[in-house]
Known about the structure:
The model is unreliable at 343-361 (pLDDT under 50). The chain is 34% helix and 21% strand. It is α/β, with parallel strands linked by helices. One of its GO terms (molecular function) is long-chain fatty acid--protein ligase activity.
Amino acid sequence: MHCATKRIAYxxxxxxxxxxxxxxxxxxxxxDAHLVEARLRLLARTNSAAxxxxxxxxxxxxxxxxxxxxxxxxxLFPDRxxxxxxxxxxxxxxxxxxxxxxxxxMELMKTxxxxxxxxxxxxxxxxxxxxxxxxxxxxxxxMIMAHGMEVIARRFGHARLSSCVLDGSGVDRHALRRLLxxxxxxxxPVVLIGATSVFVNLCQSLREEGESWRLPSxxxxxxxxxxxxxxxxxxxETRAMAARVFGIEPRGHCNLFGMTELASQLYDxxxxxxxxxxxxxxxxxxxxxxxxxxxxxxxxxxxxxxLLEVVDLCVLDRPCALLTGDWGLxxxxxxxxxxRVAKARQRGCSLALDQVTAERNDHG
Length: 364
């Protein structure tokens, strides 16, 4: 173990080896995840005085609150200029935080996204039409949801039939009809992926106009969280809408949890209703896991509701544990994400996308 007495540089051998081991862990090599986590903690404690002080006050390794990224965002490598900065809105949507990535941080995020999507989302599908209900990465370069979905589409999607259908005016219905029409004609499965709020708004609009599709067998819906501001939508309601409007079977639906501060995405694991609105438990991987902490003393909970914490070993550029602003429900089947701590408030990306699709008329 590196015995650090001063800041660990980005090109230090310690970081070189840690980066390589994280990549090997994600791709399935025999790497000790506990040792990787311990080294990430040492890096964060050494390179961030604020993180060290926070851990001294609470517990070594406890998640840094996501609110820290709205004030003084931790970044562990001041000797390396970030190559990418993503923005995260606060829960009211009135301000932004900044999350910086080094080249290695970006590469680890890509590796994690591809590994998890291939195993949890796209298994058994060959070049589906990946249709994203988000702006393109070019149009929204600082929205991590746009970046992550672009990575998935480029790696797994059919080149001609995979596209974004959301812009500043709402959902481009002409583009959506064209892509779905070609996919149906070719009997090519479709993967619809985007914020829950956008999907709900779209389905309500399509139902009012009597428009629907019967998508090819194997088609899937991935809702990436966030809800309309007036009420939350249950898993069963979401699945019913997917079946009525797109002909997607219930088993073709899953929820994705991601945050700007995280490199990895969490997908539903077991198709077992755990949360009050039917939320499914998230699948843990050797490189990322969800857990729950008690709100009063931040102790870990094996059962029951508390604050959601995500430990993401693919996070290199900042502390790898994040204490989110979400409620988590610990269950023997895993941890379900059951909503934001602040009542009736949304995560940044979902809030912004909901405003686009709910407050403006869809064009087409």
